[in-house]
Inverse folding.
């Protein structure tokens, strides 16, 4: 919900395809990136006691969990968690964010 609200609130800053990207568009992406990192860091923190179940220590950072998910190719899973990871990966770069 928070992520959707952010995207709706900032979509006007991102110009249509094939137009030059503005500083406002890049600032919107930076805000998006910070929001996603914060949401994921909160998730990792709330899941900390279970990280050992996926082979990670309880001190693992959000970045370490992302690296483990990439190594596992978790976004290739056909189930709902895989679909959600694919949606996040789909807008993980500025170019993909602007296209969305």
């Amino acid at each position: 919900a928070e992520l959707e609200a952010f995207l709706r609130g900032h979509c006007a800053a991102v110009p249509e395809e094939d137009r030059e990207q503005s500083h406002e568009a890049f600032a919107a992406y930076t805000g998006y990136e910070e929001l996603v990192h914060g949401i994921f860091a909160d998730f990792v923190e709330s899941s900390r006691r279970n990280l050992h179940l996926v082979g990670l220590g309880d001190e693992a950072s959000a970045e370490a969990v992302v690296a483990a998910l990439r190594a596992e190719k978790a976004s290739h899973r056909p189930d709902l968690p895989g679909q959600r990871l694919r949606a996040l990966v789909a807008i993980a770069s500025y170019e993909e964010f602007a296209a969305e």
